[in-house]
UniProtKB/TrEMBL annotation:
Substrate binds at D106, G107, S108, S109, N196, K262. Residues 187-319 form the Fructose-1-6-bisphosphatase class 1 C-terminal domain. Mg(2+) 1 binds at E84, D103, L105. CDD domains: FBPase (cd00354). Residues 14-181 form the Fructose-1-6-bisphosphatase class I N-terminal domain. InterPro entries: FBPase_C_dom (IPR044015), FBPase_class-1 (IPR000146), FBPase_N (IPR033391), FBPtase (IPR028343). This is Fructose-1,6-bisphosphatase class 1. Binds 2 magnesium ions per subunit. GO terms for cellular component: cytosol. Pathway: Carbohydrate biosynthesis. Its cofactor is Mg(2+).
Amino acid sequence: MQTLAENLTSQAISPTLEKLILTLANTSKEISHAVRHGALAGVLGATEQENVQGETQKKLDIITNDMLKDALKADGTVRGIASEEEDYVVEADANGEFLVCFDPLDGSSNIDINSLVGTIFSVLPAPAGELTEKSFLQAGRKQVAAGYVLYGPSTMLALTTGQGVQLFTLNPETNEFLLTNGAMAISKDTGEFAINMSNQRFWEAPMQTYISDLLLGKIGPREKSFNMRWIAAMVGDVHRVLCRGGIFTYPTDNKNPEKPYKLRLMYEANPMAFLVEQAGGKASTGYETIMDIQPTEIHQRVAVILGSANEVDMCLEYHQVDYSEEPAL
């Protein structure tokens, strides 16, 4: 089996990008070690702090954020860093070629119940000039690499540099990431969907109708039975989609009118959309393609609908219907 380093060399990417990806991978090994030790290392539970999103931070959120931040600042290839856990962008090396956006521990609410968590990252080219928040405000199409590390029964790295999606598994004996799937592909059709059903009453009419039709199964307009899955960690749900197809969505809702969207564009939606598109799937907000969005701020949130191409298209058809018109009597 190819190691991660051997695979990156075969992709003929730049030495600096290869170095950066290896730094991210090596840091994820340390994070995996911290996650595995859990309560034994005293890293579980919540702090008294909130992040910029207004969410209570877990101890491991802070620990993993610092691990990644320190490693990237020392790497020499990184100009600046943006993290879900940082209020502002962080300067790294003035000569760095890249910007890195990351969610250090996606699904951290799962930590205390020993369920799936992961690290999501996105790599952008660093523009010339002074480092500011504006430096990061690039559409997802500008990404040169993206991926996630899933900390589960096995620690797995899904990676794209724009040449398809490769999946690597961490060998616990050698501590090396080994290639276990050289070309991940999402099936065009699916019978699985992932959504937080507890928010159903808050969704827009298109998503209400779409999900209702899925739940009707064979007796509904889709004439097909669907199963629902929900891990409550985007990294886990997207991993399932990459492995066996499906549609994952965290749609617009009106539960809190000031926060109609849940997922972050720069740290979650863009890198996952890059992976999904490279594996043959699609990723949209319901109204526009995620990777074509021009960001307006680093902590921007968006609605997300991604996965099997034909099913995403079907969901988007519902979003083209005008539900404001009263039905004819």
